[in-house]
Amino acid sequence: xxxxxxxxxxxxxxxxxxxxxxxxxxxxxxxxxxxxxxxxxxxxxxxxxxxxxxxxxxxxxxxxxxxxxxxxxxxxxxxxxxxxxxxxxxxxxxxxxxxxxxxxxxxxxxxxxxxxxxxxxxxxxxxxxxxxxxxxxxxxxxxxxxxxxxxxxxxxxxxxxxxxxxxxxxxxxxxxxxxxxxxxxxxxxxxxxxxxxxxxxxxxxxxxxxxxxxxxxxxxxxxxxxxxxxxxxxxxxxxxxxxxxxxxxxxxxxxxxxxxxxxxxxxxxxxxxxxxxxxxxxxxxxxxxxxxxxxxxxxxxxxxxxxxxxxxxxxxxxxxxxxxxxxxxxxxxxxxxxxxxxxxxxxxxxxxxxxxxxxxxxxxxxxxxxxxxxxxxx
Length: 378
Ligand SMILES: *Cc1c(COP(=O)(O)O)cnc(C)c1O
Fold this sequence. Notes:
By secondary structure, this protein is α/β, with parallel strands linked by helices. It has 14 helices and twelve strands. The longest helix has 18 residues.
């Protein structure tokens, strides 16, 4: 028996009747194309306390589309961190902008404020902080800096759905907040999906257009005088990155149990933090004004490779999200940022490993993970 990092089949079976009904409903309605999407966008914005939600087909697309809608492109610099999913950096670079990495805080593992301040140049257009593993970056401070320097903040909250700062959920702080509904994220679709939240109605409309060929979804209604062809009237170029309606229907089912999902993760994280205390492991820390989303429970140890191998032999899966850091990836070798460029991010990435967490994990399984770790480390 292997204790797994994720188990989609088990999560499907827990709510099989609801999922089946949701998917069949979309098929039987002949792909209305809008009904489930609109309903999900309203419910998701509501759940997060945000004004506008624009669904897209991945977390990667959400970052790229938010930046494009803000006018970021060739010649611009966008500041982010190197200890993240490649999607954060590749989404920036695919707008034509240059991704400028800065080092992170060793405790929260999110963007260092000092490093951010020194990296801002006249070419900087936006900051993309990453809420690493579900611990929000220092968003209020980053927003203050951004306001002073006239920069946009596109928050990569792909791991932080439900996290709070001063008891307010992430999603309504930044210029745009990006989420992923990748299967393994805690609001996981049965495929791919993403969403951008914003308080800016015009930005929402631009993002919506960009995600669907550049057409305004309301265009044919507003410009009736142009006749039928108005539907193909383009004022801008867009992408084809919309969320699939079947995924929206599935996400609406999952959204109903998201509070419970988060409560489970918070309980499991508290159990790990109390029962692993005292072992030679660095446990994840949380700032006092933060409620963590616990998408990942990521510990650090010097001999993590040996620990992971021994745990695997005892039937416990772990993972390595994310390592190596971006500046040491082959794809970015030409940028010539060698080892030592971002020492804190490098240290974190060389020592981290994630433990199983989430609603698929039973209490007995979590006990076995803890027991295995004790055996390996004592
Ligand atoms: C998952 C993830 C993304 C990308 O989301 P996809 O839906 O897989 O495209 C971006 N940033 C971070 C931090 C992520 O964890």
